[in-house]
Amino acid sequence: MSLQECLDADAEAGAPIIAIAGGEPLLHKEMPQIVEGLVERKKYVYLCTNALLLEKKLKDYKPSPFFSWDVHLDGDQQMHDSSVCQDGVYERAVAAIRLAKSKGFRISINCTFFDGVDPKKAADFFDSVMEMGVDGVMTAPGYAYERAPDQEHFLNRQKTKTLFRDIFRYGKGKKWRFTQSPLFLNFLAGNENYKCTPWGKPLRTVFGWQRPCYLLGEGYAKTFKELMEDTAWDDYGTGAYEKCADCMVHSGYEATAVMDAVKRPWHFIKVALTGPETEKPMAPEISLAHQRPAEYGYDAQVSEQMERLETKGKPSRGPRVRVNGKDVESQKSSAAE
Ligand code: SF4
Prior knowledge:
This protein is α/β, with parallel strands linked by helices and 337 residues long.
């Protein structure tokens, strides 16, 4: 996506907070201008990165209360290097975090936990990033959406809730800073019976506005209006669709938590003050009895969109890469993720 397409997408959606996801956004030549343009509009920008290029690119960005690096770290050195299948990545990311902090940047950590994570190690990791001075942590359960290559190490909802309860138990009395709402964390710990709000975090990719959410690509709308008005939102979410059965990801549930905070401010304040509940019985799980079966159309969607872009004569922006087993032209967008 060009600078202009990014700014137009912002103008269309009017969202107050924008997360620029990857791939690796620092490979995009116009990224400093994209960030600057959004910050000028007083949008809160979270720029996701694996931090491998961060030290080199830092000079192209300016610290601002509206701008935060969002560094991918899935735990301590052993956990993260094994998650990304490469030794030394954790150390480079931590060195870049320290440098960015010393230059006055805001830093958030983007942390996904998978099946088999030791809750004590996860809690120690949160302690360590707090000591590094990061401004907040955004955490999520690894969830087996259809395009993820490794389907074995993802969490189901029961395991997710147990894992986060165990982690939060170690965090009692500590001042871990999260960039997520207290009620979403309470949901991760099994205390809220939330339904997904997929429209709460709309996703724009090089193909258009993705239906229904960041995780599932079941079609693309040309405009934000079309996305909002013509998507069958009720067809998605845990209990409604088979692919959503194990999902507890912020992509769909953070917006539900935020709306609940407005509806029940006293509940929000209590959870914000005391932290997520870790001992009482969990909220009842959503029944999957009436979910509609999964439909598998992502490969066809990608082929159709690539054909459309090629017909439009879009310039090639990179080498050919493998997406879902197909050779396609690489693009600077989150669609490849
Ligand atoms: S539950 Fe919501 S956020 Fe999760 S995959 Fe389904 S639509 Fe997307």
